[in-house]
Specification:
It is a single chain. The protein is α/β, with parallel strands linked by helices and 252 residues long. It has two domains: 42-172 and 215-249, 3-Layer(aba) Sandwich (Rossmann fold); 178-213. The protein is 48% helix and 23% strand. It is globular, with a radius of gyration of 18 Å.
């Protein structure tokens, strides 16, 4: 299997009005997300500083697979002055990948950017059996899946890792014994209090997204899955001061 750009060909095309509406909605969501990033509301600066330290300590040249890479703006910063030799970024948004190409170009390593569903992409790579990576990164994406889907993807990632490779997960994490509803209410409370530049319409978009699409697990759930799937070590590396987001390492 050669890694190259994939194009999703749908059986039917949306009408012009539907296409415009979907594009307008995506653009609006992207604008809100950029405001969140620019104001560091989700703590990207701190957590990617930790990621940079981890990657800078890698003792030999390494390759990375970045699933759900988006525009790779924070990842490119974390990769500066590391020994990365090859970066593969996968995202469903071709618009984001255009920006990712420019951001990763600053690193100076070989790069491959793939337009595809990143979860299906892991299935394809596992079935192909010819691609391995030293580092696999998923940042703020895995929580959209249900538990059995998360386990399947993590199992795929283990298969795709080279010996002594690491799966790095950056994501929202529930407290132990905290259910999903309690986590969401706590998180939205933080949004109301701290995201001061988000207007009421934008807050509604954030609330709707989190309420419908976020399914965080606990740290102990990930540790159990790590042991079940045969990772050699599971290490929690970072937790933000709001106790909502963590960086976890699963070592092959």
């Amino acid at each position: 299997m050669q890694i190259s750009e994939k194009t999703d060909i749908k059986k039917s095309q949306p009408s012009q009005d539907e296409s415009f509406s979907a594009k307008e909605f995506f653009n609006r969501q992207w604008e809100v997300y950029q405001k969140v990033l620019n104001n560091n509301y989700m703590g990207h600066q701190e957590i990617y500083d930790v990621l940079h330290k981890l990657l800078a300590e890698w003792s030999k040249p390494f390759t990375m697979l970045d699933l759900g890479c988006g525009d790779a703006s924070f990842t490119s910063g974390a990769l500066l002055n590391t020994q990365i030799t090859e970066y593969t970024g996968v995202d469903v948004s071709t618009a984001a990948l255009v920006d990712a190409e420019q951001n990763i170009a600053l690193i100076g390593c070989e790069r491959k950017l793939v337009s595809a569903d990143c979860w299906q992409f892991t299935n394809d790579l596992v079935q192909d059996g010819t691609h391995k990576f030293d580092v696999v990164l998923i940042s703020f994406a895995l929580h959209h899946l249900q538990p059995e889907e998360k386990e399947r993807i993590i199992n795929n990632i283990r298969t795709l890792l080279n010996p002594h490779g690491v799966f790095i997960l950056i994501d929202i994490i529930r407290r132990e014994k905290e259910d999903r509803e309690s986590y969401i209410q706590r998180y939205l409370g933080n949004v109301k209090r701290d995201w001061s530049l988000i207007d009421p319409q934008e807050y509604t978009m954030v609330e709707n997204h989190i309420s419908s699409s976020d399914f965080p697990e606990t740290q102990s759930w990930f540790q159990t899955i790590s042991q079940k799937l045969g990772f050699s070590n599971f290490t929690p590396v970072y937790c933000d001061n709001l106790d909502t987001t963590e960086l976890l390492c699963f070592y092959r």
